[in-house]
Amino acid sequence: IAKERGGGCFTCYRQEMNLADESSFLLENDLRDALNKGQLTLHYQPQIDAVSGKISSVEALCRWEHPLLGMVAPDRFIPIAEASGLIVPIGDWVLETACKQAKVWLDEGKHIHRIAVNVSAYQFNKHDFLNNVKRVLRETKLPPKHLEIELTESIIMSDAEENIGKLLKLKRLGIELAVDDFGTGYSSLAYLKQLPISTLKIDRSFISNIGDDTTEGAIVSAILTLAQKLKLNVVAEGVETSEQFDFLRKNQCGLIQGFLFSPARPKEEIQQFIGKQFKNDWDTCINKNGNK
Ligand code: C2E
Ligand code: MG
Ligand code: MG
Ligand code: MG
């Protein structure tokens, strides 16, 4: 920023840095109360089976309705929650709320294969994380196979050797594990085979530029081939156009998540579509949003 404004603007730059710090500090204070005040909610984004066109699974995504600022994006508040340790109570709440919701849906006969929940590094590294997951499964009575925990590639690879043990313990609870933002870190392919994971989520940055003649297209089709050999599910994240969808279908990508079908929405809006043919039912919605 300082550069854009020409030389001698070091002070403006510093002031802006301070402002940013200050606003993080204020947000942190508000975030402390957000849970108790009921300002956090979960939205759910469907993952569509590319063959049947039905909702297979949903990802729970946290939303913060700030009384003055309105919706604060998770990319803004999750890092603050991580840095302050608030991610622990927030993460527990997310896990509990998501599992409770999935159990309600299953009891109502709305079949979803999995509910995917994001877990951050700080949470995963806490010594009682495994016990927390156990407790939530016990208390919500959600059959473990319906829970999928998403960990980013960088969390898993930060200490792959040590994490394999932790992941195995989680897996033994009967839950599924997914690698989020796959392709953005530096997964050792050797570890990929040893990890007890069942799903790769291809990062949005690759999807936006896929096509038969692009580097991203080549990377994505290579990931899909690899996943098939290793018998892993693949979710393509951030699918926005029917061209991207066609490419993924042609290359046998199993699950599609993205604005082409639906953004994350409140439970009331998502639940009516569970088990139904997403493709046909949502055609009008897709057209209305101008995505097609
Ligand atoms: P993520 O886990 O990779 O989630 C996918 C993000 O991509 C979501 O953003 C989703 O709304 C967005 N997305 C999905 N489809 C499309 C698309 O077609 N186009 C575009 N442009 N975006 C799409 P969101 O909800 O803002 O979340 C951002 C990140 O915040 C998440 O990335 C995740 O890392 C983190 N996050 C969200 N909720 C939680 C939570 O409960 N716990 C933790 N630890 N992290 C969370
Ligand atoms: Mg995720
Ligand atoms: Mg992701
Ligand atoms: Mg992400």
UniProtKB/TrEMBL annotation:
Signal peptide from the UniProt entry: none
Ranges where the EAL domain occurs: 24-278
Name the record gives this protein: Bifunctional diguanylate cyclase/phosphodiesterase
Taxonomic source organism: Fluctibacter corallii
